[in-house]
Design brief:
Elements: E1 13-17, H1 23-30, E2 34-38, H2 43-53, E3 74-77, H3 100-111, E4 115-121, H4 131-142, E5 145-153, E6 164-172, E7 213-215, E8 229-233, E9 241-244, E10 265-268, E11 271-274, H5 277-283, H6 296-304, H7 309-316, H8 319-322
Parallel strand pairs: 1-2, 1-3, 3-4, 9-10
Antiparallel strand pairs: 4-6, 5-6, 7-8, 8-9, 10-11
């Protein structure tokens, strides 16, 4: 999470749909915006969200009457990717019915926020040969919004994790003062070793000593902006690969098995271990003050499903210029 000295979104309000751990909330609040509503159906994520923000998110958004949601300037939604009911027929808003994106669209239709900010997995842009994204775009344009989208990698915004996501920014046309532009990438300066906890009782159980480890002989003496594989355990499948901490992290995952499930393995000192949930939090841009689940498996799953706060911040810093404020 980047430190922001100016608050370009002071005076703006937002809602946090499919809120998860509150990554969108952290990003927009850091820029001065105020959250007026949140929704998240997962009970475990709800608990963590409440512990950090003092608010219990409302449950299943499909059961929420859009008229009861407070007025707001920005709608944030990291909605899950679902198959569209009539995908490919390009009937816009009608096409989106029956999907969770429809719940975003019906709220937008009712509340008319100035800006809609959405995020999804990279493959969303290619889903159904691109027709799914086209349906989302046409739906938002039919509702009166200019639609911008781009696949961005956390690597290009200061976070050493191979995590690519599609980001969508929709500006209400009667509010738009300038075309929206996504932030330009910059050189990576930090690597996995910069995000590790000191060795302690917390990290001791993470080491993997019970498997036969095979190293590939590659030297581990240079920083790299790629994932550098040094060895494997077992057959070297997913969750069984060992990487250098001088490189970048593999994509954190909510699912998957293996000795280093959900985080990948890293050579720390002369031993291999998985990442600690706090280290995962850091690699997702969550500050150390953020309270994580006391159940490690839940914490790994939640961060694997989350958003990179830093990337959201850099994108949101561009909002005010599109709406007529300072850049």
């Amino acid at each position: 999470m980047i430190e922001v000295h100016e608050k370009p979104l002071v005076g703006y309000t937002f809602i946090d749909l499919f809120a998860g751990l509150g990554g969108f909330r952290l990003a927009l609040e850091s820029l001065g915006a105020r959250c007026v509503y949140s929704s998240e159906w997962d009970k475990q994520a709800q608990k963590v969200y409440q512990e950090n923000f003092g608010v219990l998110p409302q449950g299943d958004i499909t059961q929420v009457d859009e008229k009861t949601i407070p007025d707001h300037d920005i709608c944030c939604a990291g909605f899950p990717c679902q198959a569209f009911s009539i995908s490919g027929k390009m009937r816009g808003f009608e096409d989106s019915r029956g999907t969770l994106f429809f719940d975003v669209a019906r709220i937008v239709q009712e509340k008319k926020p100035k800006l809609v900010f959405m995020e999804n997995v990279r493959n969303f842009a290619r889903h159904d040969n691109g027709r799914t994204l086209q349906v989302v775009q046409k739906t938002m344009e039919d509702l009166g919004y200019a639609f911008y989208w781009k696949v961005l990698s956390a690597l290009d915004y200061g976070v050493p994790q191979k995590r690519e996501r599609v980001y969508m920014v929709c500006v209400r046309q009667d509010c738009q003062k300038a075309p929206f532009e996504f932030p330009k990438p910059f050189a990576l300066e930090r690597h996995v070793e910069d995000f590790l906890l000191p060795e302690s009782q917390e990290t001791a159980p993470l080491y993997c000593d019970r498997y036969a480890i095979q190293f590939n002989g590659k030297k581990d003496d240079k920083r790299s902006n790629k994932s550098v594989k040094l060895g494997v355990v077992n057959k070297g499948g997913q969750g069984e690969r060992i990487y250098s901490t001088k490189g970048i992290a593999v994509t954190l995952s909510a699912y998957g098995g293996g000795a280093f499930a959900k985080t990948g393995g890293y050579l720390v000192g002369k031993r291999a271990r998985r990442l600690h949930p706090r280290e995962c939090a850091r690699l997702m841009g969550y500050p150390d003050s953020y309270k994580i689940s006391k159940r490690p498996n839940q914490a790994y799953k939640q961060f694997g499903n989350s958003v990179v706060v830093d990337v959201l911040q850099y994108i949101a810093l561009r909002f005010s210029s599109a709406l007529g404020g300072a850049n």
